[in-house]
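Support case: magnesium ion complex. Customer-provided input:
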Amino acid sequence: MPSPAIELVGVTKRFLTPSGTAYTALRDLNVAIGIGEFCAVVGPTGCGKSTTLALISGLEPPSEGEVVVGGVAVRGVGKEVGYVFQTDAVFPWKNVLDNVATGPRFRGVARADAEGRAREWIARVGLAGFERYYPHQLSGGMRKRAALAQTLINEPRILLMDEPFSALDVQTRTLMENELLQLWSATRSSVVFVTHDLEEAIALADRVVVLTAGPGTVKGIYPVSLPRPRNVAEIRFQPQFARIYEEIWNDLRDEVLLSYERSKRSLA
Amino acid sequence: MSALSAASRNAALRPDEATGEAARARARLNRRLVVNGLRILFAVVVLGSWELGTAAGWIDPFFYGRPSGVANQLRIWLFEGTAQGPLWQQIATTLEEATLGFLIGVGLGVIFGVALGRVRLLADVFAPYIKALNAMPRVVLGSIFIITIGYNIWSKVALAVVLVFFVVFFNAFQGVREVDRVLLANARILGASERQLSTHVIFPSALSWILASLHTSFGFALVGAVVGEYLGAIKGIGLVIATAQATFNPNGVFAAMFLLAVVALAAEVLLTRLEDRLVRWRPNTITDVTI
Ligand SMILES: Nc1ncnc2c1ncn2[C@@H]1O[C@H](COP(=O)(O)OP(=O)(O)O)[C@@H](O)[C@H]1O
Ligand SMILES: [Mg+2]
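Agent response - structure generated as follows:
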């Protein structure tokens, strides 16, 4: 078996809280993600999903353990990683064209070439005609498309996505999930897709990793053996989908309830 | 208004909505007429009661001047020149000092603000000094500048620089500190070098803070120039004011104030244009409340 694209080995992440104590966000996390694999990560709010992505991207160092990408231990932000953030991260002072061209420009591509490639990617995510628009002139879904193009134009071998569609309405969301699968199948990069929506996780992924309520660690890993290419809008009605959903939900439910009880107690 | 939302609004127009649109446009026009009418009325009432008050003997024009006297003074300056020479020379001198002081002060303020905002060590080292300098009434530096630099324009420029610097500095510093962390992370992932982080993320993000400070800054630059001239100069509106004061000519003081107000308003218009050009990406939600 070839070495995995991403490997988290005994990873623990602690943050310093404002009161000066250490807060453990992730504890002894062990996951390996294969080359070209689409892996979804689910878990209750605050269990450390975003933190996991930050560690893989190299934006944050682990407190213990090691993050290995492409066989090399991660030290800082690498060139192979694309990251679609949970909140809006397109630059508000750049129009769509400049936003999408940013990556190549940073990496030393000449302006004309970068803009040519940006136009292709803008068309590919369905934003043709909006090159000169600024982010505030776009809808939330269009901004996400711009963010997707901005990330994919770098052709990352590792694609990290943090609840990218959670702020979108259901229709837009299903559309974009399908488009993502299409774009991904053309690149075959390794994807870590964080979501709190189990249906979305199963519809998209080859495997679903369930994390425990904080501090997060792996509760279970489930293969999703649904055939590809998939249509996200229809796959939910397959009997196999329901079986997988039930299996994972049995595991996830306890963690969600635990997390919910805790948040209720901390509010009380 | 964005072209996008304007387009979608027009596309969705039904006949009854179209007439509604026309009615709204009429209402806007009416409102503008009312506002401008009231503005003129306000000026007429204030100036009129001032003039009538002096005519009736309630206000002593020897101390408080009178509008007709101020207008007469302006006419004399305009056609016969001031005691210091032609009026335009006085205005040009003050404007030159203020503009130079403004540009240098803004430049230094931005450079230091961005540097200290980005480099924690610099901020920690210089914070107490900057706070101390800022707490000082900096106008007193004017006297020092006149002694060390002399009666030429540069002592006034220096005073304007000092006044402008702190306003811009604090805004640039704050702007850099307020940069969205997600945008920084995104730029890093996309491959930005430290320098590209500054030019593509930190500076544009701080720019709206910096531009907001420019409005107050030009006012400060004008204060620096005029106070400097007042303390000692060969030309300039500040000197005109000092001369008017020395000859017990309140009309002269008011006339000079009027000129300064015109200059400041013109600068304000230019700065607003500049701001609109530079931050075109920003949703223009605040235009409604600017005066
Ligand atoms: N920079 C940080 N400093 C302190 N605590 C943090 C930081 N980032 C995340 N945390 C904490 O770590 C936990 C996990 O956060 P996160 O990974 O964002 O959760 P999720 O994405 O699963 O909702 C949360 O309790 C959060 O408060
Ligand atoms: Mg999160």
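The first strand of chain A starts at residue 6 and ends at 16.

Case will auto-close in a few days if no follow-up is received.
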